[in-house]
Design goal:
- This protein has 220 residues and is an all-alpha fold.
- The protein has one domain.
- The chain is 78% helix and 0% strand.
- It is built from 10 helices and no strands.
- Helix 4 packs parallel to helix 10.
- The longest helix is centred in the last third of the chain and has 40 residues.
- The two termini are 43 Å apart.
Length: 220
């Protein structure tokens, strides 16, 4: 029973771990901003945005998942299937070795896709909260540095991409509002009138394919 309780508690942290260590946050923010840029209508629906973000996250993280599985496979092979959830020392050592081996490909992914400025900032913050005798052991490759640096970099890049997405739609809204004012039709909602033109613009430039390709290939 204690083993099962611990397992349930650990599984509760899985969504937070996936959100912090994958591309899902950035992809969902960018797609959400695109949805808002199109107008007040639910096009596409929020559930569709989340599903698309999850699918694209799978494309981005698949190579990393393969590297993690390959690195941790030798250690996982030593786990006794008959008592996988018991606290046998052999199983604990095997699982610990698997985690140590599997975290290196993930660390490399986080490091490659985090900004140097963000890593420097979090390294400085970590050093200020670490005793001086232990500061020499810290580096920019520590998980306590690369993980928050990656997440902050993802948020920054998502907002940058969101600005580039919102700008043409904002200009189109201004043009439509100016035309309606010039024609004396201020009573018509500019967002509703502009929506068909926004959809036409986005489809004509093959927006979804271009955006998806840029998002997925943007990861190193």
């Amino acid at each position: 029973m204690p083993d099962l309780t611990l397992l349930v508690v650990l599984l509760g942290f899985v969504p937070f771990a996936l959100l912090a260590t994958t591309s899902f946050a950035k992809l969902s923010i960018v797609l959400g901003l695109l949805r808002n840029a199109l107008g007040p209508s639910d096009v596409p629906p929020g559930a569709v945005v989340l599903v698309l973000a999850a699918l694209l996250t799978g494309y981005v993280m698949l190579p990393v998942a393969r590297e993690v599985a390959s690195a941790s496979a030798p250690a996982l092979a030593r786990v006794d299937p008959g008592s996988a959830w018991s606290w046998r020392s052999s199983n604990v050592q095997a699982l610990t070795s698997a985690l140590q081996a599997g975290k290196e490909p993930l660390r490399a992914f986080l490091e490659r896709n985090s900004g140097a400025a963000e890593r420097g900032t979090f390294l400085s913050l970590l050093q200020k909260r670490t005793p001086e005798a232990q500061q020499a052991e810290l580096s920019e490759r520590d998980f306590a540095v690369v993980l928050p640096a990656f997440f902050v970099t993802e948020l920054k890049e998502a907002l940058q991409l969101g600005f580039l997405l919102l700008l043409p739609f904002f200009v189109l809204d201004l043009v439509i509002a100016s035309l309606l004012a010039a024609l004396g039709m201020q009573g018509l909602p500019a967002n509703s009138v502009a929506l068909p033109f926004k959809l036409l613009l986005f489809v004509s430039v093959d927006g979804f394919r271009t955006l998806i390709e840029a998002l997925v290939t943007g990861y190193r």
